[in-house]
Design brief:
It contains 15 helices and no strands. The protein has helices at residues 10-31, 33-48, 63-70, 79-101, 103-115, 121-134, 140-157, 162-175, 185-194, 198-204, 206-227, 240-247, 252-263, 268-283, 293-307.
């Protein structure tokens, strides 16, 4: 990696090419053919530019120079990978532990207590639950998986069209990416590129995130009013005191994460590590949420897979 800039040897070229092919194949498996084909086209263009017409013409780069450059700190190992290794991986892992601990179901029940009886209640429940899950997970896909299975059937049962229910869930879950403290990968890249602490980016995101969900709330309210949609019946709602008594302790890891990140000003990866450890510990309070060694290993595996998506 550190030999970039010198004349590449045949072994440099061999291992660089192997690594680039391996990364290309991982990208194809995790994101599909579109990104894989696009990256392959640009690599080929870099080598065969001397055959291109007009504005697309350039002298072309030797294949060994291109491969060794890609396998360097200015190529694949540049800023995005640095941010992924330092920040994104641990926060994705934290989100995986939140999902495995059953905290997602607690967030949904909490949201149903808060907004279930309002006009268009199930869709407004989706707003609150997606925002709560967004505090612990920067993945919109994971957000949909956790609360979509509860909220979409509720919305359909209360009169929302299937297409509208799906769109509302997608909209709210996408907004979860900009809810601090755990946001999408772009927020960590912003902190690295700007050279500022991640906590400043998280603080700056509070107002945009609030405006996003306020706009979503009023959009849903207007739609519910125009279509005569009502909220959930009282007997369909969970009892607030009961869910707080049974699973309220699952909020502790997120509070610890926020405290470490915003008050103690710890680094993001140190804060995420403390959040993960505290989540494992508090899961042992009740048998229903207790994580065994097998569960922890599986969650570590799921988190590693999620970090590549």
């Amino acid at each position: 990696i550190y030999r970039v800039g010198v004349v590449p040897t045949s072994w440099d070229f061999f291992f660089s090419t192997l690594f680039v092919i391996a990364v290309w194949e991982m990208a194809r498996r995790t994101t599909g053919w579109a990104l894989a084909i696009l990256s392959a086209v640009f690599i080929l263009y870099g080598h065969f530019g001397n055959y291109m017409p007009g504005l697309f013409y350039h002298k072309g780069y030797a294949l060994d120079r291109m491969m060794t450059y890609l396998f360097s700190l200015d190529g694949i190992f540049s800023l995005p990978i640095l941010a992924s290794a330092h920040y994104i991986f641990l926060f994705v892992l934290f989100g995986a532990f939140v999902e495995a601990s059953g905290a997602g179901k607690f967030f949904v029940d909490f949201a149903r207590c808060a907004a279930g009886r309002l006009r268009g209640g199930p869709a407004k429940v989706s707003i609150i639950s997606s925002a709560l899950i967004g505090t612990a997970s920067g993945s919109s896909v994971a957000n949909v998986v956790v609360d979509g299975v509860f909220n979409i059937p509720l919305m359909k049962a209360s009169g929302f069209k299937s297409s509208v229910a799906g769109a509302v869930e997608a909209m709210n879950s996408s907004g979860g990416q900009i809810v601090p403290p755990v946001m999408g990968a772009g927020a960590f890249l912003m902190a690295e590129i700007l050279g500022i602490p991640y906590s400043q980016v998280a603080l700056a995101a509070i107002i945009p995130a609030g405006l996003y969900f306020i706009a979503a709330y009023w959009m849903i309210d207007f739609y519910a009013a125009s279509n005569g949609l009502v909220g959930l019946r009282k007997e369909e709602l969970p009892v607030f005191r009961k869910i707080m008594a049974e699973k309220g302790y699952l909020l502790a890891p997120i509070i610890i994460l926020l405290f470490c990140l915003m008050v103690l000003m710890y680094s993001p990866y140190r804060s995420a590590l403390y959040g993960i450890l505290s989540l494992i510990v508090v899961s042992w309070i009740r048998k229903s949420t207790r994580m065994s060694l097998k569960d922890i290993i599986k969650t570590l595996s799921d988190g590693a897979k999620g970090s590549m998506e």
